[in-house]
Amino acid sequence: MRNNNRKNDEMREVKVTKNYIIHPEGSVLIEFGNTKVICNATIEEKIPRWLKMDNSSKGIHSGWIAAEYSMLPRATNTRVQRESIKGKISGRTMEIQRLIGRSLRAVIDLEKLGDRTIMVDCDVIQADGGTRTASITGAYLAVELAIEKLIDENKLKEIPIKSKVAAISVGKVRNEIILDLDYEEDSAADVDMNIIMTDKGEFVEIQGTGEEATFTQNELLKFIELSKNAFNKLFTL
């Protein structure tokens, strides 16, 4: 039994509050235990200049989805200086932003989206491990709400969503393979892995890292098998 009284295959409680912010086309507050992330999806009736040039050369109409990620200064145990004050985005932030964007573009038909951009902002207001996996799951839900609004307003003739996407963390802590790591578990993990999957059972990405340790092929399969419990629950959202 883990310190938080969860079984190894047990997720933290997940809560979703839709339309958490009134202004964006899609907005959710997603909570994985004590990790809380606000995900807002904004629709812009334009596409990046580089994409417009690329579309023109190919004779197609295609939209774009991108993401930004940030963390409030006291989302963690100690205050972290805002990156806007530092004047540059950290490598970790850039990595997470790109991961969220890739995960969303993998399940949205960008041609059906048309000449528009969906910009997703993921802001961590409280961090206790798994902020990137919560952000991906929440970002998808926010995008789904934004697309529903486009459909309701007759700006889209067909739904461009190919499948749903969610993410969860797994890891090995003190030789135990566990699901949905909180901060204490993540900081002590020998192996830390993030799995992004669609509701069709297809992987978008698997990020696995040994922290001064290694993992076997058999353990990799156990990580993936354990994650299935989480995805079954997440897709019911």
Task: Jot down its keywords.
Ribosomal Protein S5, domain 2, 5-stranded mixed β-sheet, 4-stranded antiparallel β-sheet, 237 residues
Describe this structure in words.
By secondary structure, the chain is of the alpha+beta class. It has a single domain, classed as Ribosomal Protein S5, domain 2, CATH 3.30.230. 33% of the residues lie in helices and 29% in strands. It is globular, with a radius of gyration of 18 Å. The mean pLDDT is 94.
Radius of gyration: 18 Å
Q: For the report, how would you describe the main beta sheet?
A: 5 strands, mixed
Q: Helix count?
A: 7
According to DSSP, the number of beta strands is: 9
What percentage of amino acids are in beta strands? 25-35%
CATH class: Alpha Beta
Give the strand line-up of the largest sheet: 1-2-3-5-4
- pLDDT average, as an integer? 94
GO molecular function, one term: tRNA binding
Subunit structure: Homohexameric ring arranged as a trimer of dimers.
EC number: 2.7.7.56
Family: Belongs to the RNase PH family.
